[in-house]
Amino acid sequence: MESDARSGDPAARVDLILPQVRRACAPLPAIARESPTDPIPLAAGQAAEGLQILLAVSAATHGAVAAGDVSTLAAQVRKLREARKVLQAAVDNTDLLVELLRSVDL
Q: According to the model, what pLDDT value does residue 4 have?
């Protein structure tokens, strides 16, 4: 699989990247729980969750767009909506801190 990832196979690259992303993101929920009033750790955890969902969708739909495989793509709509929801929450939490800083003229 690693040689496939190096040769440029997108599905193999996702298979190689996803465990690394999961490992890197694993501590983020605990960090967010330790800082419940800080929106940035929460946003980081949400962004990490969204990234993992998108990578899983990418792996599940590899080649479906080019092949016109609508049923494979349609099967991922729920996950795409879930990814959008958590990524939007990450943006909203980031905006919250920006607004807090703006309110104190920073």
A: 58
